[in-house]
Amino acid sequence: MMIIGLYTSCVILNTLGIEDYGIYNVVGGVVAMFSIISSSLSSSVSRFLTFEIGRGDFERLKQVFLSVFVSLLTIYFWGISKTEREFIFFIFKKYARKKQNSLD
User: Fold this and answer.
1) What is d(CA 28, CA 16) in angstroms, rounded to the nearest whole number?
2) pLDDT value for 60
């Protein structure tokens, strides 16, 4: 398995180049981080919702659900806006560099 990983790393590095391979690794790290955050949020939300269902307090259940929903929407829109801004900056920077190189 380790040999396959080393081989695919070399193939991806040769295909993408040094700069794009670094970006590929950063994106992979960010995806892994959000995966961990997503799974922990899922389990904690499930715990709070089932706790309120078990108590039979449906007013509190509505409050918990609404607060979780608003919190997740806020995190989602913050993440999308941040990611989109960084992506646009990267694309413009990369194309500006290619255009500058083609003019030289």
Assistant:
1) 14
2) 93
